[in-house]
Design goal:
29% strand, 131 residues, 5 strands, five-stranded antiparallel β-sheet, alpha+beta
């Protein structure tokens, strides 16, 4: 017996709404230290395995910043990510801009050259959780 059209339309709409997902409010992500917030932002990105079906782990995570570049406050985040490719580590990298306490990812890879990096254990801690 086929579904009545209104029921089928409702099921389809509910399913699509679940796939689309809702974006968290910016204020909800504003908890924790700036480094913790940057780590969570990086881990929400596809480059850092956010949509990977295979578990990933991070090693040698690095951050540089904050530093000023053309009137902007920037951070650069990189790591070795293992798991999605067999035997070969990926090296994801993002540039994060801070504006009025909010962090966003920007497309400006050249801004990261020549800046001193330091260990970024927050990324490894949040990214390597097993549960």
């Amino acid at each position: 017996m086929p579904f009545p059209r209104p029921v089928l339309a409702l099921c389809l709409a509910a399913g699509l709404a679940g796939c689309m997902g809702s974006r968290p409010a910016p204020e909800a992500a504003a908890t924790g230290t700036p480094r913790e917030r940057i780590a969570r932002l990086a881990l929400s990105r596809v480059e850092f395995g956010a949509v990977s079906l295979i578990p990933v782990r991070f090693e040698h995570a690095r951050i540089s910043g904050p530093f000023a570049d053309a009137g902007r406050t920037l951070y650069c985040v990189s790591a070795q990510m293992k798991g999605r490719t067999f035997g070969k580590a990926e090296r994801p990298k993002i540039v994060v801009q801070e504006r009025a306490g909010a962090f966003t990812v920007i497309d400006d890879d050249e801004a990261c050259t020549g800046h001193r990096t330091e260990a970024f254990p927050e990324l490894e801690t949040f990214g390597n959780r097993t549960g």
